[in-house]
Amino acid sequence: MSDSELIDWEQLSMIFGEDDEEFDEDMAELFQEFIEDGNARFDAIKDASFPEQKEFIAKESHKLKGSASNFGFTQVANLLAHIEDDIGTIASDDVSESLEKAMAYFKQSIDAVVSKYPPLASISR
């Protein structure tokens, strides 16, 4: 999957600025917090028992979907929206598969953003 399919670069340029603008360090710190929070939420969702904790999975997916959308991680947000929206009818295997894809896209998206914005490399690992 290409970077343009993973990430809404226009959204990120509003956060970090255009290529010719000075890099916003405050936004870089927010990005780091997003990564840390995202990893923690993915772990919590992954560790939740399905179907017993459907509501928890839906709520955590919703929270992470919003953050992912804010940072332009479109494919991550789409997969989490699928989990959240379909939690009442979704099968366990589909939750697992969607979650695994979302986690992989999360990592790929981080790598793509760090490649485009090198100052993030020191804080996003």
Task: Considering the chains and any ligands shown, give keywords for the structure.
single chain; 125 residues; mainly alpha; Four Helix Bundle (Hemerythrin (Met), subunit A); 6 helices; 0% strand; elongated
Give structural notes.
- The model has no long low-confidence stretch (mean pLDDT 92).
- Helices cover 71% and strands 0% of the residues.
- It is built from 6 helices and no strands.
- The longest helix has 25 residues.
- It starts with a helix and ends in a 9-residue tail after the last helix.
- With 125 residues, it is an all-alpha fold.
Q: SSE layout and pairings?
A:
Blueprint: H1 3-6, H2 9-16, H3 25-47, H4 54-70, H5 74-85, H6 92-116
Helix pairs in contact: 3-4, 3-6, 4-5, 5-6
